[in-house]
Amino acid sequence: MNLRNILLLLSLIAMTGCAGVNFKNQVDKLDTALTQYGVALRWGHYNQAITYHMNRDGEQPLTDINNLEHFNITAFRPIDPVVNEDGMKATIQIEIDYYDKEYGVLRKIRETQYWWYNEEFKRWLIESDFPAFK
């Protein structure tokens, strides 16, 4: 094998390694965002949690924040996140356990959230509506 082929092979290996590192970095950032989002929900910092919900066009879904005072979130669980190949989008099944203070009942929400990485803000956002607590 000549030097040129060896350098080409090494370049390909390095590029593949970099792609793997970038993917891992994106997944790590997603994991951090999921944790922060869950903490915001559980501690009742709904204004902070709502900031994660933004469509790709920059629009934020309407959320009735006044209704949220009737609920205490007791658990937030992301289940089986599926991240696309470039690490820029993820589909995540979530479960949220919450206590309805008005009726004294524990309830659960299960839904799919669509997360995407916003390059401009350097953060993961959710392109799904804010969970509907009822």
The CATH architecture can be named as Roll
Low-confidence stretches: 5-18
Order of helices and strands: HHEEEE
Shape: globular
Number of separate structural domains: 1
E-strand count: 4
Q: Tell me the number of helical segments per DSSP (H or I, 4 or more residues long).
A: 2
In round numbers, the mean pLDDT is: 87
Report on the structure:
This protein has 134 residues and is an alpha+beta fold. It has a single domain, classed as Nuclear Transport Factor 2, Chain: A (Roll). It has helices spanning 3-42, 46-50, and strands spanning 71-83, 89-100, 105-118, 123-126. It has a four-stranded antiparallel sheet with strand order 1-2-3-4. A hairpin with a 5-residue loop joins strand 1 (71-83) and strand 2 (89-100). The longest helix has 40 residues, at 3-42. The radius of gyration is 20 Å and the shape is globular. The N and C termini lie far apart (68 Å). Mean pLDDT is 87; it is low at 5-18.
